[in-house]
User: Fold these one by one.
Assistant:
Number 1:
Amino acid sequence: MNISGKFNVKLDPMEFYANGEHGINLGRMSIDKEFHGELDATSKGEMLSAMTSVEGSAGYVAIEQVIGNLSGKKGSFVLQHFGTMDKGKDSLILEVVPDSGSDELSGLVGKMEIKIEEEQHYYVFEYNFA
């Protein structure tokens, strides 16, 4: 299956354990999302980031639990993010955590892409059931 739609995201700074040194800025943010379309759901999670002293170079990891409906099936699943930017060129791996699907989403596997156009966030979700 391959679906797409819009989502809204709210990120808020959180207290964190580690402070960056030597030109590195470490951060921690809460994630709150609302997905629209074939994925009609909300998510909550946390993101850790590292900004370097080189403009456009950074990295982040995040975990979010998505709860709602996926193409009419109810349940939840977890998305894991691994993103980097190398002088403005970005790379993102965003996958469903194995065996994280619950209820009617049990066995869910998949990958998601995120696109941002004119400040609107879009997802493309390729998934199936193992």
Number 2:
Amino acid sequence: MKLARGICVLGLSTLALSSTGCLKAMLLKGQIKGTRDGSAAVNTLHDWEIARGVATAGIGQLEGFHKLAPDNTDALFMLTRGWAGLSFGFTEDDYEEAYEKGDDVMAEYHLLRARAGYARARHYGIELLGHHATGFEAAKRNQETLSKWLKENFTDKEQAEDLLWIGYAWIGHVSASKDVPEIVGELYVGVEMVKRSAELDDSLVYGTAYTILGAYHARTAMAELDESKASFDKALALNGGKYLATKLNYAQRYYCAKGDKAAYEKTLNEVLAAGDDLPAARLPNVIAKRRARRYLGHKVWQEECGFKL
């Protein structure tokens, strides 16, 4: 937009046509910024079905913004967050429904949809990174080089939100691609972004960085359970247990890996019993309740944890 502003200045003293084009660019920029500022309203919705329609329609508008203003960082951010959120909140839900019904064909279909959605989020996230610093592809050679690059180039608290959602998208893409070794092998990229985000501002989205890290540390049979618990506890300290995604993941990741069925069920029931204590995050909490009901109600999820029924 620096170029557009320069054209505007010249246009005032030359052709009206130039200033007209610049005015359109300025109006578009303002519209995109306004959309980002107002996007938080979606999280107050109480109806999952309505929210799905809103999210699906909204992503098309964001794609249009990017087409018209490809270098606009607000549009890139919203596309990164939007595709990642759509993939988690709705496409993965389709996958889980098909999976627990034993419909392998539809489960595979929805899994590929989720993978593609996260991939698109990651694509826009990489574009967004390029507006902060150069050299990302070289930096992600390994965990150490990436960590160094992030610490050198991301030093401002205001950069934390971009890193959080790019990391979220990256980790989601890995989670939906467990059968693709080259994708799984780059899990550390998303993790390092989330870690750096937490270092810059760990309060974002009710401590979501710690919830992500808690799930990460409980991801395998060789789970780092102490680190997982510490991360989840940090998230709970920040959100007071009102942001239900933390408790949902605590149960589904930590207690599942630990093999503690009683704590698993207790924590999921706490999610279901929670009131509307965080109106600003009503939709994420509706999604958490929807998942908790599923994980308690169908044996396939508990069997995956190794719990005896």
Number 3:
Amino acid sequence: MENILIIHNPYSGNQKNFDDIKNKLIKIAGEQSFNLEFIETKKKHHATKIVKNTTKNYKYVFSMGGDGTFNELVAGNVKRENPYVLGHIPYGTTNDLRVSFGLSNDTLCAFNDLINGKSVSYDVLSVNNTPFTYAAGFGKLLSIPYETEKKNKVKYGYLAYFSDGVRDILTKKAKLYKVNYETNGKIRQINTSLLLISNSNQMGGLSIYKDSYMNDSKFEVLIGKTNSIIKLAIGFLQIQKFKKSKYYKIIRTDNLKVKIESNEDYKNWCIDGEKYEKKPKEYNIKILKKIKCRVSKKAKGYIS
């Protein structure tokens, strides 16, 4: 029997029925000739250490938790001489990666999707060499994922983010920050209310790009050119329908340098829904490495 390791985050999502789900996953794995092992994370970044340091031979290593848990697996995997084939069982709040990986919303079905799916190449991006899997940035609304209280995430799920987002929109005006950015050897300056980098078409429960690929050695950059909340919202709709908007600048590139020139204080960047603890003035975004990931056979957004 081949081995599959599941690294489970017990602090992510609703854990009420976990023991029952765990037993069912073990049964499903056994029926398909896999031996299933579980390791439970004890603290932040524990999953990274597990993946980086384990020497056991695993067919696949799956995370089971929120998108941030998968981020930790990736951070450990890129440091390995012989990286594992990774996968993700959604068990968090918004589960953006579930859509990107073409997985079912049902935990057991998602596990089946992975086992019977396909292995694809996956671009791992980084901010100042800190890996991220699908989205990073700063500005209006982008601090909501890490500022929303954990108890509300567990109790209300995605609605907790939505509620905090609406409150932020109604009570706080968007600020404009002076930013220098460099891509493809050209330096430009812009005043922006938000800057969002991604290689995914699904972020915060919203589908922004219809033709974004997660393994084409490129990533998208969305730069808000207005501090009007109404115009920003209209711009999102325009991008989804027409692939462009006068309220945003959209860049598709393989490298980006960002320097925040504004003297006005700004909140920490958000990386895969988590707070980026460092707060430098300069950010270097690039494709750090390609790894192999397990996705559903029906997953879109990958070049064969």
